[in-house]
């Protein structure tokens, strides 16, 4: 059963008595599902085929939520979480399930949602999967300054809370970045400005390791010198981001001279070296955090869409060109459209740096009226990579675009199912559907779907 709601806090603080529940399945958010007095009960942390002890913490007319107290009968898929911060940090929520079990659940949930809410059935492609640990190339750590102890901690937000959980390591973060957390915390505690520091962003890029420290006021010379020494010692580029979003290098670099992180695509085994494209990105802007899966995802999109030289391909929600540049490199005439102006500018810079002249980018609100947009018209193929809200509004213009093929990359199976119904209603057939396991150890389900216009 899919869970299409965002739970609201219960006005009553009183907990029910502890009860036993038989868990039958997981919802697509990773919570166990049980039945109790005619209601569906969602129990985060419980697994199918388990008997658990839990307390009801919220009751609605047709469903309830419960807090897991104890696992009485364990599932064969239950494993001991490896992360020492798992039960307090809000970053991961499925470490208690085997990696194979996680992927089987995600694939089944994807198929179930697409069948139930879109009536769509397609050939399930092999899942795109990689290592389950140390896969994130980027993370933003919150700072927590304790006024009593005068100490600063680095950590992540607790689940459904603004509370910062101090951490010493992160097992899903690239190991070089995870190893920097404790030394960085020690360094920041030596700074005179430690009480006014914001978040710390760590990035593992193809051209090195980067750290971006958010500051709320200028640092003095001694603090900057300490940061510079740390950067040399750990072979990492450190820059500061002020209240206006301007970046300052700790070695005197300015926005114009700062080296920015970058990564390559189409550079894997079997590809021609001259096919590779390099994408630069600005800290703070969106980038897919799982580098290995992103490469596999782009290559699968190229294979499914099969761009041919001279075809007109529209890439909606294009970001900084993650799909646009590879499509153009394959010879297509590509139009990329994005709602964030800074990312459109970055996409244009990336296209120019790679010598791609069959690529044009536009800035547009893709949830608004697109009728007057100069790029809207007949196309051969369409690629969609929207945020969690999906691409429902953009798909209302299908009749004017008439693409033969549509590749939809989704980070939310609920909006994918809703939007698939639009495509099916317009005469498209779901040809392929596949799981993208971008975030192992979490409930997040990403997917790719190929639709083709029926003859």
Shape verdict: flat
User: Class of the largest domain in CATH?
Assistant: Alpha Beta
Could you tell me the number of beta strands? 23
CATH fold title of the largest domain: Rossmann fold
The CATH architecture name of the largest domain reads: 3-Layer(aba) Sandwich
Average of per-residue pLDDT values: 92
The CATH homologous superfamily of the largest domain is named Vaccinia Virus protein VP39
Largest sheet: 8 strands, mixed
Residue stretches low in confidence (pLDDT < 50, at least 5 long) are: 1-13
Tell me what you see in this structure.
The protein is α/β, with parallel strands linked by helices and 455 residues long. The protein folds into three domains: 78 residues, Nucleic acid-binding proteins (OB fold (Dihydrolipoamide Acetyltransferase, E2P)); 215 residues, Vaccinia Virus protein VP39 (Rossmann fold, 3-Layer(aba) Sandwich), CATH 3.40.50.150; 110 residues, OB fold (Dihydrolipoamide Acetyltransferase, E2P) (Beta Barrel). The protein has nine helices and 23 strands. Helix 1 packs parallel to helix 9. It is flat, with a radius of gyration of 24 Å.
Jot down its keywords.
455 residues; alpha/beta; OB fold (Dihydrolipoamide Acetyltransferase, E2P); Rossmann fold; 3 domains; seven-stranded mixed β-sheet; 9 helices; 23 strands; flat; disordered N terminus
Put the structure in a nutshell:
The chain is of the alpha/beta class and 455 residues long. The chain has helices at residues 99-118, 175-178, 181-188, 221-234, 291-305, 324-329, 341-353, 398-401, 413-425, and strands spanning 19-23, 25-26, 31-36, 39-44, 50-59, 63-73, 123-128, 138-146, 151-157, 164-166, 197-205, 208-215, 236-241, 247-249, 262-265, 277-280, 312-316, 333-338, 359-363, 381-384, 405-410, 428-436, 446-453.
